[in-house]
Amino acid sequence: MLIAQNLLGSIVIGMMGGTIYGLLAMGLSLQIGVCRVLNITHGEFAMLGAVLTFTLSQLGINPLVAPVIIGPLLFGLGFLLQTTLFRALKARAPSPAAFEGNALLASFGLMYIISYAARLRWGSGLLPTLHWPQPVARIGFVPIPLNLVIICAIAVALGIAVYLFLTRSRLGRAIRATAEDQPTAELMGVNTRTILALCFGLGALLAGIAGTLISIRTPVSTSMGFNNTVIALIVVTLGGLGSVPGSFIAGIIIGIVSMLVAGFWVPVLAMPVYYAILMVLLLARPTGIFGKK
Amino acid sequence: MDITRLFTTHRKLLWVGFLILLIVFVLTFPLYAGKYPTRVLTTMLMYAILAVSWAMFSGTTGYMSLAPAAFFGIGVYSMFLLQDYLPFPVIIVIGGLISFALAILLGLVTLRLKGIYFTIFSFGLVVFIGNIINYVEADIFGRHGWYFPLLDPAILLYTMFGLAVVTVLAIYFIKRSRLGLAMQSIGGNEEAAEHMGINTTRIKVLTFAISAIFMGAAGVVTGPAFVYANAGLAFSVTYSFIPIVAAVFGGMGQLHGPIIGALVFGFLEKTLKAQFQTYFMLGFGIIMVLVILFLPNGIVGLLPMLRDKLRGVIRKLRKGGEAEQHANT
Question: Looking at beta carbons, which pairs linking B2-5 to residues 24 or more positions away fall under 8 Å?
Answer without folding.
Answer: none
